[in-house]
Amino acid sequence: MIVSMENTTTSAIDKKLNQLRDQHGVVTLGRVLTLVIIAQAGHSEAALEAANFASHEHPCRILVHVAHSQAESTRLDAQLRMGGDAGASEVIVLHGYGELAEPTETLFSALLLPDAPIVAWWPHEVPPPSPHTSSIAGIAHRRITDSARSDDAFETLAELSARYVPGDTDLAWTRVTNWRIQLAAVLDQAEPAPVREVVVEGSGRSPSVVLLGTWLGTRLDAEVTFVNNAGPRRLDRVTLVRDDGEIVLERPGRTVAMLRQPGQPDQQIAMPVRDLDACIAEELRRLDPDEVYGEVVTTGLRDVRVAQVVDTTGELTPGAARFLAEHGGGRPAPDRPGGAAPEDAGTDPAEAEPVEAPSADPSVPTPGEERA
């Protein structure tokens, strides 16, 4: 059931919700949280579909704010979705024009579930200067961003690192959960031996590559080499270099990974690409701060030792180049695959040409989309 309301108020919306519950028997019992989505006009449906999917595991009230032109006269339109059109939730889509194009705590306060945790999600951008400084983020228990949607993901990671507060998280980290699980399991089963170097291969535009490399490097006390491959934003291969040989976890496609270990036959592991539905469902399973992410994005990004970067494409953004330079990252060694140093190796990172921003719609794969 979908009900549209034009030029309305949050008080009128709340009264309409109560009326619909009385007429159709819809109740709010069992709603465990309020999910607030700050969306972009024209791209809200993909985020809403992911939230509806997650609501089957986490029944919730979903509030979606869609910003329209601030130049138009101030008004608020709404769409109420209940029953089969709202998954296991009830959905309120707010279209804000004029002064209401800016989402604020006062706009949502009348529609929040009482005594229920609040999760705020920015599916398309990280609001400047940081998510926890906006008014809605100030009342949220968890704040979900996606640095892969930024023009320069590494600049955004640096910003999130500097302004991190407990409760912040980023989907670039959530996308590498399966990689972390498999690598941790392999090291638990392998013979004890120090890891001398971690080599992470993938797109130089992917923040997931940096976050996973940072986590491994700091936890294993090893230097990290980043290999920047051509292709979509994704993580391709992780190599743990030990004295007894190399442990390699590689996913050449979208569903199956290959594990190679010294003295053992190669193994195929089911490790499909995580879509937006799975990532949001995972983030809603925890309402306490993600302490591991907090350590990686703060002390980890500061302390990780970068051995070098093998840049085979020349696609490093200025933010990525600065990050690598600040952490000791050198240019390609001649014995590395694809290791011929680019002709502009001495170019000032600030003068490098930035890459094109990815599509704002998380549901549409593009040449620059994150695929960890």
Please characterize this protein's 3D structure:
This protein is α/β, with parallel strands linked by helices and about 375 residues long. It contains eleven helices and 16 strands. The chain has an eight-stranded mixed β-sheet. Strands 9, 10, 11, 12, 13, 14, 15 and 16 form an eight-stranded mixed β-sheet that branches. Helix 5 packs across helix 10, helix 5 packs across helix 11 and helix 8 packs across helix 10. The longest helix is centred in the N-terminal third of the chain and has 15 residues. It is elongated and about 70 Å long. The two termini are about 35 Å apart.
In terms of topology, how is this protein built?
Blueprint: E1 2-5, H1 10-24, E2 33-40, H2 44-55, E3 60-67, E4 75-81, E5 90-97, H3 105-108, E6 118-121, H4 135-139, E7 142-145, H5 153-162, E8 168-170, H6 171-174, H7 177-189, E9 195-202, H8 207-220, E10 223-228, E11 233-242, E12 245-250, E13 256-260, E14 267-270, H9 276-283, H10 291-303, E15 306-311, H11 318-326, E16 370-371
Parallel strand pairs: 2-3, 2-6, 3-5, 6-7, 7-8, 9-10, 10-15, 11-16
Antiparallel strand pairs: 1-4, 4-5, 9-11, 11-12, 12-13, 13-14
Largest sheet: 8 strands, mixed
- Overall shape: it is elongated
Q: What is the average per-residue confidence, as pLDDT, rounded to a whole number?
A: 82
Listing every helix as H and every strand as E from the N terminus to the C terminus, the arrangement reads: EHEHEEEHEHEHEHHEHEEEEEHHEHE
Rg from C-alpha positions? 22 Å
**Strand order within the widest beta sheet:** 1-4-5-3-2-6-7-8
CA-CA gap between termini? 36 Å
Low-confidence stretches: 331-368
Portion of residues within helices: 25-40%
Name the assembly state: single chain
What is the total tally of β strands?
A: 16
Kindly estimate the percentage of residues that lie in beta strands according to DSSP.
25-35%
| Annotation field: number of helices | 11
From the helix content, strand content and strand pairing, which structural class follows?
alpha/beta
